[in-house]
């Protein structure tokens, strides 16, 4: 199971939100590039970057920082937030990003997502953010009537090989992940795609518990920044079979 350190960017700075609420922002010292280099030095194999401004407004707004991360790191970068057109996708890939995350578009513009999956096989992850099992969009400011697992299966049928599943209620809360939801998603998707879990991870016990749900990866944000989790310990647990 792979560990993905998260770097959320707002106004060019590293921040964390609570349950996706833009009025509840915690800013962390160090610019995004410095933070990414730190995680790489500590053993990260992949970095997860989100343009929060882009997710809310519909167009990537922090590309200078994201480009800096992708060009300076020797490990892959996956990035999401406001990618809504093929032109934006091409621009993101030209900046050095290895995997682009499409979230809102999976709900609001499925023809675009289907085209992107065909044009960039393996280069697209579908981000599904859910509250009480229902998919959200527009940086979590809107709620759909689509069940998260049904959306995941629809995207797998269209060619998706990676699903990033975020439980909004637990995100940024350090209250523990929604293990039941992650287990249900992993079971629903099966061998059609890998599932990366996100939201609520607070300690190494949570990482062990998530490993047992069958997810292929875990995104860790706030707990790394507060020091509740040491990245090296998380990576070791992810690799372990014990």
Strand order in space, largest sheet = 1-4-5-6-7-10-11-12
Terminal-residue CA separation: 12 Å
Succession of helices and strands: EEEHEHHEHEHHEEEHEHEHEHH
| Gross morphology | globular
Average pLDDT confidence is 91
Number of helices: 11
CATH topology: TIM Barrel
Structural class: alpha/beta
Helix content: 25-40%
Total tally of structural domains: 1
The CATH architecture category equals Alpha-Beta Barrel
| Biggest pleated sheet | 8 strands, parallel, barrel
Highest-level CATH class: Alpha Beta
Q: pLDDT below 50 for ≥5 consecutive residues: which ranges?
A: none
CATH homologous superfamily - what is it? Answer: Aldolase class I
What is the alpha-carbon Rg in Å? 16 Å
Give me the count of strands: 12
What share of residues are in beta strands? 25-35%
What does this 3D model show about the protein?
The chain has 242 residues and is of the alpha/beta class. The chain has one domain (2-237): Aldolase class I (TIM Barrel, Alpha-Beta Barrel). Helices cover 38% and strands 28% of the residues. It has helices at residues 32-41, 52-57, 63-72, 86-94, 104-108, 110-119, 148-157, 179-189, 204-211, 222-226, 231-239, and strands at residues 2-10, 13-18, 21-27, 47-51, 77-80, 99-102, 124-131, 134-137, 142-147, 162-167, 194-198, 217-220. The chain has an eight-stranded parallel barrel with strand order 1-4-5-6-7-10-11-12, surrounded by eight helices. Helix 1 runs parallel beside helix 3, helix 7 (148-157) packs parallel to helix 8 and helix 9 packs parallel to helix 11. The radius of gyration is 16 Å and the shape is globular.
């Amino acid at each position: 199971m792979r560990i993905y350190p998260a770097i959320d960017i707002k106004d060019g700075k590293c921040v964390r939100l609570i349950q996706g609420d833009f009025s509840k922002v915690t800013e962390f010292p160090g610019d995004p590039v410095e933070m990414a280099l730190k995680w790489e030095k500590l053993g990260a194999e992949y970095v997860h970057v989100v343009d929060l401004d882009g997710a809310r407004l519909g167009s990537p707004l922090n590309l200078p920082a994201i480009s800096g991360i992708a060009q300076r790191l020797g490990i892959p970068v996956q990035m999401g937030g406001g990618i809504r057109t093929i032109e934006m996708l091409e621009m993101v890939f030209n900046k050095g990003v290895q995997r682009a995350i499409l979230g809102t578009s999976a709900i609001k513009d499925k023809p675009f997502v289907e085209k992107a999956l065909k044009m960039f096989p393996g280069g697209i992850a579908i981000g599904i953010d859910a509250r009480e099992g229902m998919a959200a969009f527009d940086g979590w400011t809107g709620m759909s009537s689509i069940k998260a697992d049904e959306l995941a299966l629809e995207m797998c049928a269209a060619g998706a090989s990676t699903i990033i599943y975020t439980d909004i209620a637990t995100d940024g809360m350090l209250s523990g992940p929604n293990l039941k939801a992650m287990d249900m998603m992993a079971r629903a998707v099966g061998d059609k795609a890998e599932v990366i879990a996100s939201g609520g991870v607070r300690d190494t016990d949570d990482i062990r518990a998530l490993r047992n749900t069958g997810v292929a990866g875990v995104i860790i944000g706030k707990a790394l920044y507060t020091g509740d989790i040491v990245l090296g310990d998380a990576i070791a647990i992810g690799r372990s079979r014990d």
